[in-house]
Amino acid sequence: PRLLPHQTLKNQGLLQEWAQDMRGRVIFVSHEWLGFGHPDPAGEQFAALKRILQRLMDGSIPKVESHWIEQIGLKHTQTVTAATWKATLPHMFVWLDYWSVPQPGATDPDENADSETEAEEEEEEEEE
User: N or C: which end of the chain has fewer CB within 10 A?
Assistant: First the structure.
């Protein structure tokens, strides 16, 4: 599935506005954009994100620990167990830039489909 921009999701009523009771329940996702006009043109990163979240929710990942640099450099290790992931993930929210921040250059794919259909129809009329 293709990531949709903030304004499309907002128009479809699929975004959750931040509220105080969400404090501590938001997962911030940072990723490299793979295209100039779209962050994930082929849906590769979104598919990977969905896979890892599903694996965490179903308990197939036994634990997640702090990055090794944090463990060595800061002498701090935090571990989140499978049981904790299973209990908390269903109540979490995901913050991803393309969803969470208006994207001025992005277009609504539904609008594009309509305009492409109209353009094709106009071309057919001109050919006749």
Answer: C
